[in-house]
Amino acid sequence: MKWFRDIGPGVLIAAAFIGPGTVTLCTIAGASFGYSLIWAIILSTFSTIVLQEMSLRIGLVTRMNLAEVIRTSIKSKILNRFIILLIISSILIGNTAYEAGNITGASLGISAIINYESINYIPVFIGLIAFVILYQGDYKILEKSLVSLVIVMSISFFITAIMTRPDITSLLKGIFKPQVNSSNLIVVLGLIGTTVVPYNIFLHSSLVSEKWNSIEKLKVARIESFISILLGGLVSLSIIITAASVSNQNVTGVIDLAKGLEPLYGKFAIYFLGLGLFASGITSSITAPLAAAYVAKSCFGWNNSLKSKRFRLVWIFILITGVFVSMIKINPIEIIKFAQFSNSLLLPIIAIILLWLI
């Protein structure tokens, strides 16, 4: 029971990347390319484990989050300002795109549950929920409830993947024979972006430094992070396996995505998927702008409280932009894919910074 008290940061990070983007991209990958892109999820999962371990180590040893360490470690004013500006720009762009995908995913979930095809005004409703929770700062109870829903959804994918009785030979081929070409490149980058989320690297160091105050907890933190992220990767793997059994190359909406769950839930698949998308979407819609605000606070050295005007302006900007983009007449699936694609482009920048600090 003592070990359960140490559960926290890693689980939150894993829950953060099991959002609408994960459900959508993994379903598209499985439905369109079968098992051939499983290698991408495995590679992404272990890359996440490595990068998040670096982040938690920095947070636990220095008792500061990654952005603070970067700001205080670079002595050259010109280089310092350049790196800080680069981080701020990257996180703002990435989280804005990611937020649009989060809100769109949650909107898709609601539209599926209430059987309402148009989602033009649902993003406003999602945005208002996130705004109220972020503005008051009392989001923990709701977050725990939503994470629980995502866990239930994850378990269902585990069971569904087993019930689809995947072809072991094809499965192994998808693991050990990587395939990358012009037709699947965007999806591959999307799978990387939906797993190795840039803002999670900054968020992890903050969570670790707040939860533990001793370097002696490093081993516990590493184990907790490894197990949590590995389980998150298995969830993504299960979604691909489940969707591969559908073999539908025309995934354009939530009904198509629900086909991946039909072997287990039958006609109720749409409601389970809708609930899962809404739960993961609303949770991510809260954490993405919040993480961006934390990064801005650390980069600029703000000592104000989380209710300060500057802190709130950052997450309000991310939230409003995300709502606006999700309301534009763009295919919702494409918004989510773009969010993950933009994340994959930001990863090399953060990885280089981590390697420099370690």
Strand-helix topology:
Blueprint: H1 9-17, H2 20-33, H3 38-62, H4 66-73, H5 77-113, H6 122-136, H7 140-163, H8 168-176, H9 185-195, H10 198-211, H11 218-244, H12 254-258, H13 262-265, H14 269-300, H15 309-327, H16 332-357
Helix pairs in contact: 1-10, 1-11, 2-9, 2-11, 2-16, 3-8, 3-9, 3-10, 3-11, 3-16, 4-5, 4-14, 5-6, 5-14, 5-15, 5-16, 6-14, 6-15, 7-11, 7-14, 9-16, 10-14, 14-15
Structural notes for this entry:
The protein is mostly helical and 358 residues long. It has one domain (3-357): Hydantoin permease. The protein is built from 16 helices and no strands. The protein has helices at residues 9-17, 20-33, 38-62, 66-73, 77-113, 122-136, 140-163, 168-176, 185-195, 198-211, 218-244, 254-258, 262-265, 269-300, 309-327, 332-357.
What is this entry, summarized?
This protein has 358 residues and is mostly helical.
Keywords:
358 residues; Hydantoin permease; 16 helices
Helix content: over 70%
Strand segment tally: 0
Radius of gyration based on Cα positions: 19 Å
Q: What structural category arises from helix and sheet content?
A: mainly alpha
User: Overall 3D geometry?
Assistant: globular
Mean pLDDT value: 78
Question: What is the number of helices?
Answer: 16
- The top-level CATH class is Mainly Alpha
Given as residue ranges, the uncertain stretches (5+ residues, pLDDT < 50) are: none
Terminus-to-terminus distance: 33 Å
β-strand amount: under 5%
Q: Could you name the CATH homologous superfamily?
A: Hydantoin permease
What is the H/E string? HHHHHHHHHHHHHHHH
The structural domain count equals 1
CATH topology: Hydantoin permease
Major sheet description: none
CATH architecture: Orthogonal Bundle
